[in-house]
Structures are given as structure tokens and as C-alpha cells.
Amino acid sequence: MNYRIKIHQGWIILTVGFITLLVAYGIRIGAYSVLLPEMIRDLHLTKAEAGMIKSAFGISYLIFSPLMGLLTDLIGARKVISFFCLFLGGGSFLMGYAESFIASSLFFFIVGLGASATWVPITTLIQRWFGEKKRGLALGILSPSYGIGFGMMGLILPLIVSRYSWRMGWQLLGILGLGLIVLNGFLMRDDPKIIGIYPWGEDVTPKETSTFLTRMSYFEVFKTRKFWIIGISYFLISFGVYTIVDFIVTYGTLELNISYRISSLFITLIAFSGVAGGFILTTISDYISRKRSLIIIQSSITMGIFLILWAGNHISYLIFATLFFGFLYGAIWPLYATCVRDYFPRDMAGTILGLLTIFYGVGVMISPFLTGYIADTTGTFRWAFFLSGLGSLCSAFIIGCLEKKNVGK
Predict the structure, then answer these.
(1) pTM for this prediction
(2) CA angle (7, 10, 13) in 5-degree steps
(3) H-type alpha helices, 164-259
């Protein structure tokens, strides 16, 4: 007998999204964090200028993310992701030819434009392809993608730098980014309804109320208390964690005088522990609620940041602290994505997540410049790291003010 195993299209979408985010986060976090010490030396950058390169990315991400969410709802994620990966890959490739602070900032601004078309469209799409009780699972499976993506950079890029240069690292990643155009163009699909199937794990007779499915105007969105609570919390946690993620390698190399190859492993530890944490904590959130999960995780992240400060240049302590921080870090972003689907109409998920990403973008934009400026002024990253810990704690407090989620989905 001929047995055929039929794979639900949702799992193919999830796989393509996984690969896309793996490459995108390898570029936007891993490459920047790992290659930054070498760029500082070669281009004679101050720490503030080095931070401003990432701020240029944040500005672009801030400007274009709302547009990507809207375009995802209007024309579909497949077209949005495929087209803008041209900027993700092209900007990364050009980073390998940067000869100055200005050129680096311009090219990373282009990378930010491309990156803005990955996280929001992909997480929006995944939630359309999986049922309500399986969204946490799906995003938990998706979450290791960005951890593996930038975690691999801590292993691979130091080898490329030692054999060639930091420029070759950017160029190779640029080629991978351009390859995403083909992958998404051929395999992505926008909605299970189009091909006449239900989301994976959803009851064939889903009970949805017309109230929840009613679209909201921008004015109505901005009037809602929950939008501002989620958004401000999103800003504070992005500010808090990216201070650590962006500068942990530079902190180890230039301040603690730990070798570049060992310092690069700190970003790998954060990333790979985040793979486990993202899956475990996001799946648990299906049962204990997104709100309670975020409060616990973000409060604990503050503890993780303070542990990194306490560890100093004791490598064994730093390893433990970065593992603890990373385990918690991995679950944050998918939990905010599921918050959007839990608290707002499904047909506006892309638009709402895009608008909320403004808050995330502000955090990404402010964090690296402020961190670099404080480090230049005080001669240490420790004060900036302490400030990031307070930001994470405030994020937990604010998300605790969120009311119960909408019912009757």
C-alpha cells in the first residue's frame, strides 16, 4: 500500500519564517554585536558613534515597521517579505564596503528598512496559520530562529574575521539575505482561507464574535488604554535588553580585557539559551497567560542584568549570568506578538503589531547611542547596564497594569 503523509501548509509557512528570521537576526543583532569591536578599531570609531550606527538601523525600523504591518494586512506578507529582503541583503553586503561612520550608518539604515519587513509580517502570518490554542506553540517553535541566527554569529564570524576580515562577514551575510527573496517568493502563502483549509489546530467550527472581528480605526486604537500599556512596556524592555545584547561582546573585549574570541561566545550563550527559553516560556504562556508570563520574565531579566554586572571579568560567573539572561530574553518578542492577537481583532494583527513596533523601534534607536555616550563619558559600560536593568523592571510593572484579554475569540 502507498501511504502518503500530508503536511499541513502551516508547517511549511513556519519553516520558511524560521529560516528568514534566522538570517535576519543573524544580520541585525549577531553581525553588529560580534563585528562591532573590529569596526571600532578599523574605522577609529568612538563608542557613541558605534552606537549611532545601530541607532540608524533603529530609526529606519521605527519609520517603516508600521507601514509593513499595514502592507501585510492589505497586500499580504509574501509580497512584503520577498521585496524588502532586497534591502536586508543589499544593505548588509554594502556594510562590507563601509569606510567611515557616515557610510556605516547609511548602509545599516538600509538594513533596518529590510529588517522591518521580517518580524511583523512573519509573526502576523504564523498566527493566521495556527489556531488560538496553538499560537503560543507555533511562536515558541519560531522563537529559536532568531536565537540560533545571532548565536551562530558568535561562532562563525570570529573565524571569518581571523582568516579574512570583518568586511567579509558582512558580505557573506548580505548574499544570504538576498537569497531570502527567492525562498519567500516561492513558498510563502498569505492565508489558509485562500486555499480552503483551516489553521492548524483550530476547531472546524471556531466560535468568533462579530465584535472581536470588527476592524478598529487608528483613532480607536490610539484611544485604547491597552495599546499604550503594551507599547510603553515594549519600549522599556527593548531599551533594556538591547543595551546588553548589542554591547556584551564590546564590553568583554574592550572593558574586561577578555579575548575577542571568548567575548564573542557571550552572544552565542545568550542566543542558544534563548532558544530553550523561548520555546519553554512561550508554550507555558498558553496556560498561565501572556500578562503573567511577561511580568515574571521581565522582572527576572533585571536580575540577569545585575548578575552580569556582579560577575565582572570572572568568566565562569559571566557564563552563568549570560545563560540566565538569554533563557529569559528568548521568550519576550513572541509573547508581545501573541499579546497583539489576544487583545485586538485578528484582521488588524499586522497593523497593530506594526504600530506597537514604533515603541520597540524607539527603544532600539535610543539604547545604543545612549549606551555608547554613557560609556564614553564615564569610561565604563556598567552605568548603562544598570540603567537597562531598571528599564526592564519598569517594563514588568507597566505590563502588570494590563486588563484581562478579550473573550469570545
Answers:
(1) 0.73
(2) 110
(3) 166-187, 210-213, 218-223, 225-250
